[in-house]
Design a protein that fits this description.
This protein is mainly β and about 130 residues long. The protein is built from no helices and twelve strands. It has strands spanning about 5, 10, 20-25, 35-40, 45-55, 60, 70-75, 80-85, 95-100, 110, 115, 120-125. Strands 2, 4, 5, 6, 9, 10, 11 and 12 form an eight-stranded mixed β-sheet that branches. A hairpin with a 4-residue loop joins strand 7 (about 70-75) and strand 8. It is globular and about 40 Å long. The mean pLDDT is about 95.
Length: about 130
């Protein structure tokens, strides 16, 4: 059974770049047909899909965040990472990594859209 675990700083200052890592165990991020996504949930709001990296290494981004997001992977460590630049307090959220078999068609997603989730990590943007 695949397991995902997010890691990264809990507090980031405005204008800085947020970097998060998802460590995957129980399955390879190079396995065909899977997409490895980043999703966030701001306080009091729904789940927002941010982007993904496919088994080939190709990346996909939410149109509204494309200019600020970078997704990459380290296959030797079975990890994939998210970088979100120029953060503001509006980027405060719980950030999740997840595995799915298809890319979302809309950015407002549900937990059932992905087969496996990390537990999530709280990120607060504040000076």
């Amino acid at each position: 059974q695949v397991q995902l675990q997010e890691s990264g700083p809990g507090l980031v200052k405005p204008s800085q770049t947020l970097s998060l890592t998802c460590t995957v165990s129980g399955g390879s991020i190079r396995t065909n047909f899977y997409y490895w996504s980043w999703i966030r949930q701001p306080p009091g709001k729904g789940l927002e899909w941010m982007g993904a990296i496919g088994s080939s290494g190709r990346t996909y981004h939410s149109p509204s965040l494309k200019s600020r997001t970078s997704i990459s992977r380290d296959t030797s460590k079975n990890q994939f990472t998210l970088q979100l630049s120029s953060v503001t307090p509006e980027d405060t959220a719980v950030y999740y990594c997840a595995r799915g078999v298809r890319l979302p068609t809309v950015v407002a997603v549900a937990r059932a859209d992905f087969g496996s989730w990390g537990q999530g990590t709280q990120v607060t943007v504040s000076s």
